[in-house]
Amino acid sequence: MSQWLGFLKKEWTESVKSYKLLLTFLIFSLIGILNPFTAKITPVVMEKFMPEGTVLNLPEPTALDSWLQFYSNFSQMGLLIFILLFSTMMSKELEKGTLIILLTKGLRRSTVITTKFVMGIVYWTLAFLLTFIITYCYTAFYWDQSILEHVFLAASCVYVFGILIFIVTLWGNTYFASAYGGLLVTVGVVIALFIIGIFPNTETWNPLQLLTAPPQMLIGEVAPKKLLIPFLVTMGTGIVFLLGTLLHFHKKRL
Amino acid sequence: MVVNINNVTKRFGTKEVLKKVNLTIPENTVFGFVGANGAGKTTLMKCMLGLLPVTSGTITIAGQPVTFGETKSNAHIGYLPDVPEFYPFYTAREYLQLCAVITVMPKSERKSRIEELLDLVGLSQTKSPIRTYSRGMKQRLGIAQALLNRPKLLICDEPTSALDPVGRAQILSILQAAKSETTVFFSTHILSDAEQICDRVAMLHEGTIIFQDELSALQQQVDHQFVFTFTIPVEQALSILNNLAYSMSIEGESLVVQLSNDDERLQFMRDLTERGLIIQSVNAHKKLLEQVVMEVLK
What we know:
Structural class of chain A: mainly alpha
CATH class of the largest domain in chain B: Alpha Beta
Largest sheet of chain A: none
Shape of chain A: globular
Oligomer: heterodimer
CATH architecture of the largest domain in chain B: 3-Layer(aba) Sandwich
Largest sheet of chain B: 6 strands, mixed
Order of helices and strands of chain B: EEEHEEEHHHEHEHEEHEHEEHEH
Strand content of chain A: under 5%
Number of domains of chain B: 2
Radius of gyration of chain A: 21 Å
Strand order of the largest sheet of chain B: 6-7-8-3-9-10
Number of helices of chain A: 11
Radius of gyration of chain B: 24 Å
Number of domains of chain A: 1
Distance between the termini of chain A: 27 Å
CATH superfamily of the largest domain in chain B: P-loop containing nucleotide triphosphate hydrolases
Number of strands of chain A: 0
Helix content of chain A: over 70%
Low-confidence stretches of chain B: none
Mean pLDDT of chain B: 87
Distance between the termini of chain B: 31 Å
CATH topology of the largest domain in chain B: Rossmann fold
Shape of chain B: elongated
Structural class of chain B: alpha/beta
């Protein structure tokens, strides 16, 4: 087994032993179930909680309501939980000093970053697929989804945005060598993207579009090609942050 | 020489932690690196491992120059940090297997080498995860991982400082046994530890090497002096011998006498017999490393 695969196996073992795999399965399966379930029961719940005699003319829920729940729950709560779960990937090792012995045994510094990156992506992909597949199947069971456009493409936009946020967290976590450092950087970047979004015409390239535009893409109000530049900017920014993490860690004093 | 440190200076901001340090370590020796806490011992070790950049100067390990951030020269090194930290979910055997993969050890060698080292450090019967280990067990596992790839140089940073007497004795005996296959460079502020197992000693004081030599050479700084104890109190013995022309002084419960040649020694024994002084013990006077260090620091 090569050094890279050996360290990747350690990352995997660590994530399993620290219950990250179990938590990911449970949390993201639950989110997947919640999306159509919430859409289905919301009118019933609202009727129950309204004062007696009140007449509510709520439209019957559709597949769109289920996917709107997906973009609310997965893009916000799901992404936040994922970042919290993986926000100490580097800082824990740097604070405790567990990497020192392995680095002095010849472990390449780039191997540390790239294996942690790959493991994060594996878990994000697992989280995304779990939520997406459960939401898709459950929604198909209740409603007709043919009224929606670009279901897969719209969901993949959130997936790509999540990758960027994870890389930013990894960079902050490595740079500041503390869990709070990584989280603060991530929160800072997200706030910056929202502030940028206030200015006119920035929606043509702002990565935040990958998070906010998919619901409109589902009803055909946003064409997929309009998200091409935000997609490229997101990928480019992700690569820059990943290279920045590699370069910084290469010269980090341990 | 397995290690050559030439004019190494290390600054943290304006604070100069190492000042033009020169140090050479011969192969297959146990080299003690002594100095008070904060003298700069760990900083020099981290520079040797490429974990910290030097401000100026060069370090070579087994002929390979050390470059900050690179790991090529670490192929020759085994390192035991002062507080070794491991992945708590692994057992000792699993952790050594990970280390074997990292050091790119041939698969055919791994199992036998790991068992050999677990036997050496007394952890072969331990099946529990590292999270349950005592400080001493972690230190022993630390030595096992450091010796795994048969390094030319074993660097240990204060390996005994936080251990109880039994743990200390175990570690010192393992380090001494390791000398047969590697060079041991270990830092300590416990001078008696250095005295027990070292062939050579260097002392770092305020960032400067103030001496480096063979331990035996340092201990033999007191030539032609002998330490006597008698069946009567030393003060009483001195008063009986006071009119003799020897250089004599009291150290603790002993009488230290300067006897420069064989004739003087024979004559002194006759003088003792004539005065009815019965010897309890006699030894060549050797200074403890601690005394040498204290004198140098004065």
